[in-house]
Amino acid sequence: MFAILTLRYPSPMDEHYQPGPIETEAQAYWDRHGTFAADETSSHPKYYCLSMFPYPSGRLHMGHVRNYTIGDVVSRYKRMQGYQVLQPMGWDAFGLPAENAALERGVAPAKWTRENIGAMREQLKGLGFGYDWAREFATCDPEYYRWEQWLFIRLYRKGLVYRATSTVNWDPVDQTVLANEQVIEGRGWRSGAAVERREIPQWFLRITDYADELLEGLEALEGWPEQVRAMQRNWIGRSEGVELTFALEGGGEMLSVFTTRPDTLYGVTYLGLAPEHPIALELAKESDEIAALVAEARTGGTAEADVATREKRGADTGLRAVHPLTGERVPVWVANFVLMEYGSGAVMAVPAHDQRDWEFASAYGLPIRPVIHPEDGAADVSGGAFTEYGVLRESGEFSGMTSGQAFDAIAQRLESDGLGRRRVQYRLRDWGVSRQRYWGAPIPIVHCPHCGPVPVPDSDLPVVLPEDVTLDGAGSPLASMPSFYETSCPECGADARRETDTFDTFMESSWYYARFACPDRADAMLDRRAGHWLPVDQYIGGIEHAVLHLLYARFFHKVLRDEGLLPGDEPFQRLLTQGMVLKDGAKMSKSKGNTVDPQHLVDRFGADTVRLFTMFAAPPDQSLEWSDSGVEGAYRFLRRLYLLVRDHVAAGAAAAVEPGALNDEQRAVRRKVHETIRKASDDIGKRFTFNTAVASVMEMCNTLGKAAEDRSAAGRAVMQEGLEAAVLILAPIAPHLCHHLWSALGHQEPVVDAAWPEVDERALVRERVELVVQVNGKLRGRVTLAADAGEDRAREAALAEPNAARFMEGKEIKKVIYVPGKLINVVVR
RNA sequence: GCCCGGGUGGCGGAAUCGGUAGACGCAGACGACUUAAAAUCGUCAGGCCCCCGUGCCGUGCCGGUUCGAGUCCGGCCCCGGGCACCA
User: Given this model, what pLDDT does residue A743 score?
Assistant: First the structure.
């Protein structure tokens, strides 16, 4: 407000580094010039850099600061490389915390959310992130979620949406459905009541229709961490196997099972049924033991981790199944480790060759019959299952075959006998998108007593979520709000009831990246601009989203493509998954009381210091250990840089470097400058290791600081070049200070529009190199040689090196290994 | 339980393709400046040893491959992320 307007280029520098006014001025400059408005008509190549948008929880936390600093550094770097960059920001505004806040404080979720957005937007601006704010939106805006409702109806008409029952956590005291997070050790978080499971009708999207494409598409995602691709691959869990049927003795009933190991078929000693399997439910009526298992399966949380860590328990049903090849009778057990959701809810158990089956069989004294053996010897199944492939024995006509041969032979035999067929099975399940919650996008369906579920007509969209509500913790307020649910059937006009469930919030986050291309479009979900900006060139967010969010967004992208709304097969070209921010070795969280409010640090040291520290403290994909004194170190470095520039410019303008006119020391300083440019370009542009880029600039500044005594014209020219390199390299990381320093160094154009520095290869040339001398791989000395010396000279020098010679004395030289420019290793005996 | 990561000085981390372990920074010690302190600048800094040597040991633990392993392979321990209704 004050000094800013009177500032002219080049600006005089204050005695001390004062981040406050420098940052205010730089932000005002970007604002005034619309610096970060992304223009799709630009002739520059486009670059879409997206950071995962935040849930507006109230204030920014360190995880946000880290995420958004990485995104901003990439965006500004790409801009300096000549790209037209789109970097948008918005709000993932629906979700559970708003409902919790409403219960705790009596604030309506909409009001609470919008206030949080206002506060967090100011914090983001204060950190100097270069967003195109004109594209901002929140997912709770009806103009956003209307297109999600519109798409859902299209998918409904296309058959990609269906209704089925599925299991939820039910709190019998609060009479409400609980999220997995709200179930703590099998009990409701508020009521403390033992959680029950309930089957209720819900809406599903057929993501499994896209399972193969989602799996195959991973191969082409070379810009994604292998770790994330592996997690998605495992999540989709494609497995090829055989589905076969066991007849139940004394009845026409058939039991279908899926196995990836038909080669082990002769080792089956029992069948396992999920407690929720219809046969188990039927038997529970007569058997207390089975009833107890079924009852147990109905308590506790629905989360996979809850189910998988239960002690393996089971009960004999008394039923006997007929082995399809041998005709042998095998017992049928109810087993609590068999999942109803996966396959058919029944498994053939081969304890000799499957570890879970082995443990169950050992616990209940069931036979363990090895039929697969290593080529040379016998499988030992006394201490656990033998799960490798091998050669079949005691397997009838298939004995002697390898597992691979037997897979095909047995599958073929089952197929020709009509007892089974080859099948591909996925672990991936269809996506349940219904939530029995208030603060989400309404599902645009009307339930008519005559017509059944009917989609809301496009002309009636959006179905607007009423925002003026009071929550009481007992179910969704929508279900007790006649003004919302009372309606008429769009088809027959009869009185009908609106769906009161809302969408899973992953729905909103599955397509926001595309809407950022055209957020102002009022009459369509997306337009041609999406084709211009997409795919996202670089996506940045937490590793915790490796599977769910990133898989759903990939699925949505393919759906939108098939609807003709988008080109391309994948939404995110490159992905960077950032690590967590820790304090004292643990994740920062309110419950641990180890949070650090980034705002306090910005107020005290400025945004540049906070940004610099988060980039310097760790590589982006690793966890970052918070350190207050480390922040002070970052501040000290910026101040040192400020003083270096101040002292340099105080002496007046410097001439351009004339490489031929430099003395040895000046040449060494200049080599350091260009080595730093080379390293920092690689670190920021290719490796994303911002920490080592910063370290190399610090090193260069240490060198420049020592060279500052050289006040000769050539020395000052080298200094000018070095300081400009430092400012350019740091501009994406500490943009405010660099904005200021760049102008102080005499430039009219703002640094945000400057070009990334280029390496002068000639400055890198060395006349002499140091070689390490090893004897038997141990460092014993060093020799310095002319850079163009060959292997013979290096060998000669190494053998003559006095300390190394001590270790070679009286020994025979077996071999000499020469690594040019690095080392020479003499192997002696 | 299943899937995926990580483990290097007092601390955060570096070592990019198997080639000098500990760059850079923090904390610390000593020195300069100062009446003094802070700030700043400079020097030192993995461990061990009455052999102080460019000696020996050292990258979670055990073993292997190699002229050479923090890096590759096998086994184990510990910590973290995800597990479909937290986002």
Answer: 96
- Other Cβ atoms within 10 Å of A143 Cβ, number: 14
Instruction: Report yes or no: A30 and A12 within 8 Å, Cβ to Cβ.
Output: no
Checking each nucleotide's C1' against the CA of A826, the nearest proves to be B67
Beta strand A270-273 with A346-349 is antiparallel
Average pLDDT, chain A: 92
End-to-end CA distance of chain A: 77
pLDDT digits (tens, 9 = 90+) for A338-353: 888 777 889 999 999 9
Nearest CA to the C1' of B16 belongs to which residue?
Answer: A687
CA distance linking residue A498 with residue A469, whole number of Å: 17
Strand boundaries in A490-583, DSSP class E: 495-498, 502-503, 536-542, 572-578, 581-583
Beta bridge partners of A391: A373, A402
- What tokens does A669 get? 């300083």
| Residue A484 scores a pLDDT above 50 | yes
Residue A226, CB, less than 7 Å from strand B? yes
- CA A7 to C1' B6, in angstroms, rounded, equals 49
DSSP string of A183-244, one letter each residue: EETTEETTT-PBPEEEEEEEEEE-GGGGHHHHHHHHHH-TBS-HHHHHHHHHHH--EEEEEE
Structural tokens at position A571:
């939404």
ipTM of the complex: 0.95
**Above 60 in pLDDT, residue A75?**
yes
| Token pair listed for A197 | 């499971």
pTM: 0.94
What is the per-residue pLDDT across A668-683, written as a single tens digit (0 to 9) for each? 999 999 999 999 999 9
The set of residues, in sequence order, having a beta carbon less than 8 Å from that of A598 and lying 6+ positions away, is A60, A61, A62, A64, A65, A123, A127, A610
Contact A555, A510 (CB under 8 A): yes
SS3 assignment, position A46: strand
Is the CB of residue A780 inside 7 Å of nucleic acid strand B? yes
For A272, phi and psi rounded to 5 degrees? Answer: -115, 135
Q: How far apart are CA A421 and CA A375, in angstroms?
A: 28
The dihedral formed by the CA atoms of A551, A556, A557 and A558, expressed in degrees to the nearest 10: 90
Amino acid at A792: D
A388: phi then psi, degrees, rounded to nearest 5: -80, 170
CA distance linking residue A826 with residue A805, whole number of Å: 10
Q: Per CA to C1' distance, which residue is closest to B87?
A: A55
Distance CA A402, CA A411 (A): 14
> In angstroms, how far is B25 C1' from A550 CA?
35
DSSP A655-668: PPP-GGG--HHHHH
Q: Is the CB of residue A225 inside 7 Å of nucleic acid strand B?
A: no
Question: What is the per-residue burial (b if ≥16 Cβ within 10 Å, else e) of A242-281?
Answer: bbbbbbbeeeeeebebbbebbbbbbbbbbbbbbbbbebbb
CB A823 within 8 A of CB A774: yes
Are A390 and A374 in contact, with CB atoms under 8 Å apart? yes
A708 Cβ within 7 A of any nucleic strand B atom: no
pLDDT class for A1, splitting at 50, 70, 90? very low
Report residue A9's pLDDT band, with 50, 70 and 90 as the boundaries: very low
Angle, helices A690-707/A628-650, rounded to nearest 10 degrees: 40
If we measure between CA atoms, which residue out of A748, A647, A732, A743 comes closest to residue A697?
A732
